[in-house]
Amino acid sequence: MINSKIPDKNQLDNSGQLDLKETASIIQFKIVYWGPGESGKTTNFLRLSEKFNSIKLTNGYSIDTTDGRTLWQDTIFLSFKFDLKGSVYSIIAQVVTCTGQERFLSTREYVLDGADGIVFVGDSDPEKMEENKRSFRELVGFMGPKKIPYIVQLNKRDLKNAVTIKDFKKQLGLPLQEKYEDNSLVVYPTVALQGENVVRCYQDLLLQIIFNYFNF
């Protein structure tokens, strides 16, 4: 028979089984996937969930509209170890996507709250360029003066009429060079349906977040 009795506080204090010091090496980050509707944010989320299935702390959840579009957010927690100069840290990354639907603008700002890093997911469809620009301006406005690391992803590169990366950069006002000084790409080309470059985007952003956290 299982003993469901709640232990006495004094028993907990004196048991020696509860070592709060173990939490000292645990660091949690929040990564938000942002972009216009149907650009591929949830697809990125699904590919990460599949790729890192063995280190998922949760199975994740998604709240959708009746037509299958994200209503609130997709959320999953991933855990891994990070060795920094001989010190091992347990990193917990909360990965969330915000809805791209214009009518849920207020929820997007809420989902962005507390973000440590952001992936902006743009759509390669030329007809979606205005939505890309509007969503990116909105993101920059919400971030304000906060120095939150972010990377820009251009998804659906397999489209036959895909916009060129150069034109995409011009439209969003991004630097025209291929890479920044830290060797990260100005724009990451992806095909999220096949998982192409999805993990690289995630890993590169996570490294930026960690370096930002430790003030490197």
Structure description:
This protein has 216 residues and is an alpha/beta fold. It has one domain: P-loop containing nucleotide triphosphate hydrolases (Rossmann fold). It has six helices and seven strands. A seven-stranded mixed β-sheet has the order 2-3-4-1-5-6-7, with helices on both faces. The longest helix is centred in the C-terminal third of the chain and has 16 residues, at 198-213. The model is unreliable at 1-9, 11-16 and 63-72 (pLDDT under 50).
Report the sheet with the most strands, covering strand number, pairing sense and barrel closure.
Answer: 7 strands, mixed
The amount of beta strand, in percent, is: 25-35%
Which strand order spans the largest sheet, edge to edge or round the barrel?
Answer: 2-3-4-1-5-6-7
Number of spatially distinct domains: 1
Q: From the coordinates shown, what is the CATH architecture?
A: 3-Layer(aba) Sandwich
Oligomer: single chain
* Tally of alpha and pi helices: 6
Write the layout of secondary structure elements.
Layout: H1 9-15, E1 26-34, H2 41-51, E2 61-64, E3 70-84, E4 87-98, H3 105-112, E5 117-123, H4 129-143, E6 150-155, H5 165-172, E7 188-189, H6 198-213
Parallel strand pairs: 1-4, 1-5, 5-6, 6-7
Antiparallel strand pairs: 2-3, 3-4
Kindly summarize this structure in a few lines:
This protein is of the alpha/beta class.
Q: What keyword list fits this structure?
A:
216 residues, Rossmann fold, disordered N terminus, alpha/beta, 6 helices, seven-stranded mixed beta sheet
